[in-house]
Here is the input.
Amino acid sequence: METTAPTGQTGWYVDDRCTDCDVARQLAPDLIAQGEGRSEVVRQPRDDGEARQLLAAALACHTRSIRPAGGRLDPAVPDPFPLALDPDVLLCGHNSTHTAGANAYLLRRPSGTWMMVDTPRFSERLAERYEELGRFTDVLLTHRDHAAHGRDWADRLGARLWIHEGDLDAAPDADQVLRGTDPADVAEGVRVYPLPGHTRGSVLYIADERYCFSGDSFYWARTLQDIEVAQSVTWYSIEELATSLARTVDALRFEWLLPGHGGRTQLPASEMARRMKQLADRVRGMSPRPVDFTALRW
Here is the structure.
């Protein structure tokens, strides 16, 4: 695999290890686009702001495939992560190959404590940076695909690790095990909704009726400008996901959609509610498909 700059390369590029996961395109949408089976740099940055976008994409990329001319990032350039998306939500970056490159988030609570939702790659350097923010109480896993570093992060931060019983084999040493399909309170202002479908133990977390951490259950598809499900990458049951959405959708209220994979967006709560009901109606008519990552509509 290509890990050094191609001959004659004079600017940023994407190397051959790219898995086409979409993370870089989320962070630098005007500079990186989807190509044939991987991302491609479509133009070089024109100013410092765009250069920072590419740096963020490079440090979020789980295969470290986004590279500057010369092939190596300058260690003297400040790391932009964790990156503020909203006053109380930070994007972790530093996505992990062990979670399929999923995004993870830090959620600030009114008390000044923090929660981690899904996990970035584990490192002591990142842990020290997070500890500077304040005390962490919980590491909330949305499902099995994102569980790889859960125990490491919970132990390092002195936090409780949460997972649903449907995916408990992925984190058998979890401190808190969610059960059944009824919603439950994780903490004041934070509610969990079991949503079996993508996996048997998938859940989503709603914080303050503002933030929805949806895992891989649904995401914002930039190409469609709408909320979408990954019909072609549903490990458990698309029919079960339809049932879950029908059971849950009327209770969901949020403004920010923050998935593990796929686009993020903010819309008025009423508009999110309307689109979620439309999504539930669409998914009701879906049937199982063979797993096909190339069919994903980002």
